[in-house]
Design brief:
4-stranded mixed sheet; 17 helices; 605 residues; Dipeptide-binding Protein, domain 3; alpha+beta; 25% helix
Length: 605
């Protein structure tokens, strides 16, 4: 999700958000919108979005600049996934109530899957058919480079054909047999069936036809939909977004971040909305959101981990506190192509020194008040699983600023005025490494998400520990959408390649589907491989995780990246410490970081 990335734009988690102001969204100007006294109604709920995580995308095909878990959650409430894979029932699995498919049968040779659609209809009364699935398939095939979930060699590259059998049956063929768990949870779950009879055109006044059936036509249609999706102010009024399949439709959508969902009266699936109106409220800071909780104007919100000691005061106001843990990892990507620091980042010893300067145990205990766990590799460690290697569990690079400084000294760096400087350029064992020039200062800058005291505290703590290793660390902040927009893949001579480190992980950087493969994150050219990390040996291991059904393949991948350090590993926090109005139930907190408003219900009010 960043949490953002939700992979349904994953994660898309990688979360993102940038509320310019929340004044007048409901009432008040304290950094976020609130109503006067909670929802005050059994058919309405006020849900607080994470600080600065402003929804900014509606199209069910996520793009790199819009990797926001909130975007994914809203979109899935409007257009249900073909196969909804989530943890909303308490365990991660296929949620058939909120899926368009009713069955997925793999062939005996594992090289294809046959899928059955349920007897479902769009909100305009038209049947949802295999033609709608074909429309999504054609658009993604022709525009895969724009799709944030794309990783070369994976979907849609490894889907060799789509055969429509009849209106409710189709078969997807693969280029080889794959791990079926991975294919179902990580690939097929990304499919978002879209209304071909409404969207297959190139302009608002254009006539719908079969343009998607040629690559050129599919590119034209994509351009139209992509441009339409950039017009946030039109989400509630544009006829394009009125035809939905999910339990909700858009009632209003503010560019400042407030979204109002209202129940889709034509919905005929199994996950019907229990609460008619859902107010999704933006806040610029966690403090503003906590003030709204204390005022009783939010039904479902969150508090800073540092304020867990105040649980009793929230209980007195009619709330229960529920930590929301996630199946995620948190990290800071390096920009290996940055013209200044990229050559330094490419040196493994330099990354080792950086990682040795991160005291994850203390950060978890002090900054996160015990609501985070150290992470030493690419597999989530907050929940037990058979995927984590012994190498990752045991932390290959324990915290030691003394050893970090010595490691740099051993490779040609000398401390000058408190900062390490390359004084022995070259490629020898005791030199700075290829591309690192004489006089290069070991000075890094991070662009970090704003709006969170916890994140600000962590960055300050990192700055202090890096200084002890002779590593400079400066901090710039911006709303998460801006961080993501400025931290994309680039070439050294690109104007946008000036970023060195980025952080979008206040609520976790990446939320995995059930199977924690790294094809999008760490494979060469992966759609969410922001820093252009590339290691052919790791690419081979990632491929093995997608084809082998053995946990050994994932463990080898876990060990390799725990040691090779493609990013700076950081403590993985709970997604949030939720504060929920008593009487609100009907759901489990999804460890994949999506929220599911259709499941919420008032048991008492």
């Amino acid at each position: 999700m960043f949490p953002g990335h939700t992979a349904n734009s994953r994660r898309w988690a990688l979360v993102a958000g940038a509320a310019a102001t929340a004044c007048a969204l409901l009432t008040g100007c304290s950094g976020g919108g609130t109503s006067s006294s909670g929802s005050g109604s059994s058919d309405t709920i006020n849900y607080a979005l994470p600080a600065n995580f402003t929804p900014n995308w509606i199209l069910p095909v996520g793009t790199a600049a819009h990797l926001n878990t909130n975007n994914s959650s809203i979109s899935q409430s409007l257009w249900e996934p073909l196969i909804a894979y989530d943890g909303s029932t308490g365990t991660v699995g296929w949620n058939k109530k909120n899926s368009l498919a009713t069955a997925a049968e793999f062939a005996e040779d594992g090289k294809s899957v046959s899928i059955t659609l349920g007897d479902r209809h769009w909100s305009d009364g038209k049947q949802i058919t295999s033609r709608d699935m074909e429309f999504w398939f054609n658009l993604v095939k022709a525009n895969k480079a724009e799709w944030a979930s794309y990783s070369p060699g994976k979907a849609p590259d490894n889907w060799t054909s789509l055969k429509v059998v009849d209106p409710t049956h189709f078969t997807i063929a693969f280029d080889q047999a794959y791990n079926q768990q991975w294919m179902l949870a990580n690939q097929l779950s990304m499919i978002r069936v879209m209304p071909q009879h409404v969207w297959d055109k190139t302009s608002d006044s254009g006539t719908v036809s079969d343009l998607d059936r040629t690559p050129a036509g599919a590119k034209q249609v994509w351009t139209y939909l992509d441009n339409s999706a950039k017009k946030i102010s039109g989400y509630a009024t544009d006829p394009l977004w009125k035809t939905v399949s999910g339990p909700y439709t858009i009632k209003s959508f503010s560019t400042a971040g407030k979204v109002v969902l209202t129940a889709n009266t034509k919905y005929d699936g199994g996950g019907k909305a229990n609460i008619k109106n859902v107010n999704l409220l933006p806040f610029t800071t966690t403090d503003a959101e906590e003030n709204a909780l204390r005022a009783g104007t939010v039904d479902y919100g969150y508090i800073n981990a540092t304020n867990l000691s105040q649980e009793s005061s929230f209980a007195a106001k009619g709330y229960t506190v529920k930590p929301w843990s996630g199946w995620a990892i948190t990290y800071m990507p390096y920009n290996f192509n940055n013209p200044t620091m990229g050559p330094v980042f490419k040196q493994l010893y330099a990354r080792q020194a950086i990682q040795m300067s991160v005291d994850q145990t203390t950060l978890s205990k002090v900054v996160f008040n015990g609501t985070a766990v150290p992470t030493y590799g690419p597999i989530p460690q907050g929940q037990s699983s058979s995927f984590v290697s012994p190498e990752q569990k045991n932390n290959p690079y324990p915290f030691s600023t003394a050893k970090a400084k010595q490691l740099l000294s051993d490779h040609g760096w000398t401390e000058q005025d408190g900062t390490m400087v390359c004084t022995a350029p070259g490629t020898g064992d005791n030199q700075c490494g290829a591309g690192v020039a004489q006089g290069t200062k070991f000075q890094m800058q991070v662009l970090s998400q704003s709006g969170s005291t916890v994140t600000d505290n962590m960055m300050s703590a990192l700055q202090s520990s890096f200084a002890k290793s002779g590593i400079g660390f400066t901090i710039k902040t911006a709303p998460v959408n801006s961080v993501l927009a400025q931290s994309g893949q680039c070439k050294p001579d690109d104007a946008g390649c000036k970023w060195q480190l980025s952080f979008f992980g206040t609520a976790g950087s990446w939320y995995f589907p059930a199977y924690p493969s790294g094809d999008a994150l760490f494979a060469t050219g992966g759609g969410s491989n922001f820093g252009n990390y590339s290691n052919p040996a790791v690419d081979k291991l990632i491929t093995e995780t997608t084809t082998s059904s053995s946990d050994e393949a994932v463990q080898k991948y876990s060990a390799a990246l725990a040691e090779d350090l493609p990013v700076i590993w950081l403590p993985e926090p709970d997604y949030q410490v939720s504060v929920v109005k008593k009487g609100l139930g009907g759901f489990a907190q999804d460890s994949l970081a999506n929220f599911h408003p259709a499941m919420w219900k008032w048991t008492t009010k």
